[in-house]
Amino acid sequence: MKLETVLLAVGDTDRDRTGALAETAAAIAGPAGATVKLLHVFTREEYRAARADLDIDPDSEHTPDTVAKRYTTIRDLGDALEAAGVEFTWNGRLGEEDERGEEIVEFAEGADVDLIIVGGRARSPSGKAVFGSTAQAVMLNAPCPVTFVRVDDGSDEA
What pTM was computed for the model? Predict the structure, then answer.
């Protein structure tokens, strides 16, 4: 399988994982010459808050793509990928809290993605039976292989 397009899907909970996610994406996409599509799925509430935090006029025609490009997590990932010489694009989507995984899978299908990267936290022995709901939805429904980047931050959530 030739790797041409990698999707790196992130959300608000990935702020502390950007280093590990960028390193993984660069290690996979860089040698293959693949393009990384950075994707942030916002809830409508998060999207409104992000627009307000970024001082974007509520009446302007900004899209989820342009808001994602200015969002800290995506911007930090883009900076890291750029420093590693990896081509990337900025992407944003709107979705409900419990539908983020489905939005990621739908985006991957439409973008003809070859691999998806998602992040999560290390889990306790009892919590290892189930990934976080978003990661689990992606892994169960993705149209391509999924790489799960686990970061141990001392918590028991994904």
Answer: 0.86
